[in-house]
Design brief:
The chain has 19 helices and 2 strands. By secondary structure, the protein is mainly alpha-helical. The chain folds into 4 domains: 117 residues, Serine Threonine Protein Phosphatase 5, Tetratricopeptide repeat; 93 residues, Serine Threonine Protein Phosphatase 5, Tetratricopeptide repeat; 70 residues, Serine Threonine Protein Phosphatase 5, Tetratricopeptide repeat (Alpha Horseshoe); 64 residues. It has a two-stranded antiparallel ribbon. Helix 12 runs antiparallel to helix 13, helix 15 packs antiparallel against helix 16 and helix 16 packs antiparallel against helix 17.
Length: 363
C-alpha cells in the first residue's frame, strides 16, 4: 500500500512517513532473515547496514549499534573477502570508531576492494573528523556535479556548513530538496532537518522561525523523526510554548533516546511540574550512562551537552567533550569543549578554543 502526502508550500511528494517506517521495519527484518540463511548472499549485509542506519538516524532506535556489531562479527566469520572489511569499516564509522574504520579500509585496499567504495568511506570519515576539508569539498563537489542526486548534494551542503560557508550550504540543501525525484520520505526529511540545523544552530545569528519551519517539514515527511522533534521542541520551549514542546516530545518517548527525556524534563521544570521532571531527568541520566558504557565515542558529544546543562556535572561533561575532540576534532567539537571548559572554570579556558585540541588530547 502506498499513500502520498503534500506539504505546506510546494514541495516534493513522498510516501506517507508512517507507512515508510513500517516498510523500513519489514525490509530490515527481511534482510536479517536472508542473512541468517546465508551471510554471503550478494548485497544482503550491505542492505542491513543501510536499513539499520536509517532506523538509527530517523527513528531513534538505540539498539542499532549493537545489532551492527553483531552483523560485522558474523559476516567476518562467514566471508573472508574485502566485502567483510568494507562492512566492518561502515559499522565502525557509524559508531564513530573512526580509527578502527581506517584500519579496516587499509586492509580492504590491500585485498583489492573497489576503489570508489573505499574513496567514499574515507571521504565520509574525513568529513566527520573535520580533516582535509578542502579536499573533501572538492570530492563532494565532483560527486554532486556528476550525479545531481540528493544523496550527494546533502553531504556537499554539510561540508560547506562545516567550512562556515552558510549561504552556499543553504543553496545546495534547497537544490537537493527541490530536485528530488523519488518517493521515499527519508531523504527529504534528512535535507529538511539539515536546513533546520543550519538556521537553528550553525549560523552565527540563528533564525529560530526558519529553523522551526524546516523541522516541521521534516516531521511532516516523517512523523517519527525523533531528532527533528527534539530540536523543534527546544525552539518551542525557548519561546515559552511549553505545551507545544511537550506535545512534540511525548510521541518520541518510545524511542528510548535519553535526549527526549532530558528535553521533556526541562519543559516540565518550566511548567513547575518538578517531581515529574526529576523522574524524567533520572531516566535521561541512566540512559546516557548506558549508551556511554556501550558506545562511548558515538554519544560523547550529546552526553557532554547533557552533563554540562541539566545533567549538572561539568567535570564529566568536560571529560566527554575532550574525548569527542580527540576522536573527531571538528570546529563544532572544539567550540563545545571550549564552552564547557569555561563553564567548568578550567584554567586557560579563556584562550582560543582551537587550543583546546592539544589540551583535550592529553585528558
Amino acid at each position: 500500500m502506498t499513500a502520498f502526502v503534500e506539504h505546506d508550500n510546494p514541495g516534493p511528494f513522498a510516501t506517507d512517513g508512517e507507512i515508510a517506517a513500517i516498510n523500513l521495519e519489514s525490509a530490515r527484518c527481511g534482510a536479517w532473515a536472508r542473512f541468517a540463511q546465508d551471510p554471503r548472499l550478494p548485497g544482503v549485509a550491505e542492505e542491513i547496514v543501510a536499513n539499520e542506519r536509517l532506523a538509527s538516524q530517523f527513528l531513534g532506535d538505540l539498539d542499532v549499534l549493537d545489532r551492527l556489531d553483531t552483523l560485522a562479527l558474523q559476516f567476518e566469520r562467514a566471508d573472508g573477502s574485502s566485502r567483510a572489511l568494507l562492512v566492518q569499516a561502515e559499522v565502525a564509522s557509524t559508531a564513530h570508531r573512526f580509527d578502527d574504520a581506517r584500519v579496516y579500509l587499509a586492509r580492504a585496499v590491500r585485498m583489492g576492494a573497489p576503489r570508489e567504495a573505499i574513496e567514499r568511506q574515507v571521504l565520509t570519515i574525513d568529513q566527520a573528523c573535520g580533516v582535509e576539508l578542502d579536499a573533501v569539498l572538492a570530492a563532494r563537489h565532483g560527486f554532486a556535479t556528476a550525479s545531481g542526486r540528493l544523496e550527494d548534494l546533502v553531504p556537499l551542503g554539510a561540508v560547506l556548513a562545516d567550512l562556515e560557508r552558510f549561504a552556499e550550504a543553504d543553496a545546495v540543501y534547497r537544490q537537493a530538496f527541490s530536485s528530488y525525484d523519488d518517493v521515499s520520505p527519508f531523504p527529504l526529511a534528512w535535507v529538511c532537518f539539515q536546513l533546520g540545523l543550519l538556521w537553528g544552530e550553525l549560523v552565527p545569528i540563528p533564525d529560530p522561525s526558519l529553523a522551526a519551519f524546516w523541522y516541521r517539514r521534516a516531521i511532516a515527511y516523517l512523523p517519527g523523526y525523533v531528532k527533528a522533534r527534539v530540536h523543534l521542541a527546544e525552539i518551542c520551549a525557548s519561546e515559552g510554548r511549553t505545551g507545544d514542546a511537550e506535545a512534540l516530545l511525548l510521541p518520541a518517548l518510545s524511542s528510548r533516546d535519553p535526549e527526549v527525556r532530558w528535553r521533556l524534563a526541562d519543559v516540565l521544570v518550566a511548567q513547575g511540574r518538578l517531581e515529574e521532571a526529576e523522574r524524567q531527568l533520572d531516566a535521561a541520566r541512566s540512559g546516557f550512562d548506558q549508551l556511554l558504557e556501550g558506545h562511548l565515542l558515538a554519544f560523547a558529544d550529546h552526553a557532554a551537552e547533557f552533563y554540562a546543562g541539566s545533567g549538572n556535572d561539568c567535570r564529566r561533561a568536560l571529560e566527554l567533550a575532550r574525548t569527542n575532540v580527540a576522536n573527531r576534532p571538528t570546529r563544532r567539537a572544539l567550540k563545545q569543549a571550549h564552552a564547557i571548559a569555561v563553564i567548568a572554570d578550567e584554567p586557560g579556558a579563556a584562550s582560543d578554543p582551537h587550543e583546546a585540541l592539544s589540551a583535550g588530547a592529553s585528558v
